[in-house]
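Journal club prep — side note

Before the paper discussion, L.F. wants everyone to see what a predicted structure for a comparable chain looks like in token form. Sequence:
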Amino acid sequence: MQDPISSREHFHLRIVDLKIEDVAFGGKGVGRENGKAVFVPFTIDGEMISAQITREKKQFAEAEVVDLQERSPHRVNPECPYFGRCGGCSYQHIDYEHQLAIKWRQVRDVLQRIGKFKDIPMRPIIPSPISYAYRNRITVHAQDGMIGFFRRDSHRLIDIERCPISLDEVNQALTELRARAPRDGHYTLRAQSGPRVFSQANDAVANALRDLIVRLIPGDQELLIDAYCGAGFFAKALLDKFERILGIDWDKFAIEAARENATAKETYIAGDIEEELIRAQVGEVDALSPESYSGTGRTARGQLGSIALTFQKEKTTLIVDPPATGLTAKTRRAIADLAPGTFIYISCNPPTLARDLAELQQSFTIDSVTPLDMFPQTAEIEVAVHLRTASALAS
């Protein structure tokens, strides 16, 4: 197996000696040359290196390692032969405990830098029980007879026979796909068949996240609004805590899956998150009434009817789990106007989370910030933030 550090081609560009001070969000180590930040992949805080500058800008530079002068005690051998060339993983050269420490620090630092928060109530990071063979699905690309992932920093493919961070069933599906010599395109390989709706790729950490949310939400609640609800993964775990549950998602297939086994207290709407949150403020949302919806949940009959929502704000919980782009300005305004007593923001992108929380801090106070390692070996971080309104804090 080639070490990603020693396998680089080097050009006649200048070499600098650096001490890696930190690992930035995204996975690159950060050193400084005359005060300018230099980003170097596959390095660890505390290491002394020689690096070759590959790209120089006014504010920062990028470089590749030429020589490791002082290795970190946290450095380990990657388990994947493609590591360093494949763009999927960033941290296989770092022991797992230190990966967790890096990610925890990155969440705190991003909230401080972008959100301008000072005293952040950080909780310990929730680890993945296993750091390899955890992914229940992957998307591979086929092109010109090659099947695999994109190379690091490029749109060229690297041919992949096996992905060590994926479950055996996923790798079996990859073997079968390769044997079929498929046409060019994208292929999502899953460990299990089921509805093709969004779900988390690490089952154990997804369950830990769900259990965390169950613990964070107080008892004696009236209404749960689960925005970006998918197939109802969180909502269905919270049935006992609420009199009424409203799930909203733009994906009509996910909403169909949520409606499959819905109880009388659950209403799921395929619609625009912003619009439905605005409707919820005035106590009315559009939804198919149960009698106009077929028993199988596969076909809708009849027209949208109107449901009346009456609720006390302090006994209302809002959960949002937006895509990486975060919340739109309109959605943030709708959330501030809704002013739920309990607000839980689940994020897969700390920078957009920090931006959104900075905008919402006039209306809410952060109770806790819990990072979760949904994707070991990669630079991805999941975060659950528990917020409360001033009125809820006073009660």
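L.F.'s comment for the group: Residues 103 and 356 are 20 Å apart (CA to CA). Keep this in mind when we get to the figures.
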